[in-house]
Amino acid sequence: xxxxxxxxxxxxxxxxxxxxxxxxxxxxxxxxxxxxxxxxxxxxxxxxxxxxxxxxxxxxxxxxxxxxxxxxxx
Length: 74
Hints:
Blueprint (H helix, E strand, L loop, with lengths): L6 H32 L2 H32 L2
């Protein structure tokens, strides 16, 4: 536990704690808003469509590579 020598030190620490509380409150609000935005239907559909497209490209590339390798062993 900290021991204070005068009221000025107490006031300073109280101001710092109040500022830290305001910062923490704003950080929580920012985190909430980012989470809310990332879970919006538009964002989810966009992400899903991107994943499907990416997987389709990977599957197509893998099929070509495997077909090429299969042709070498025939």
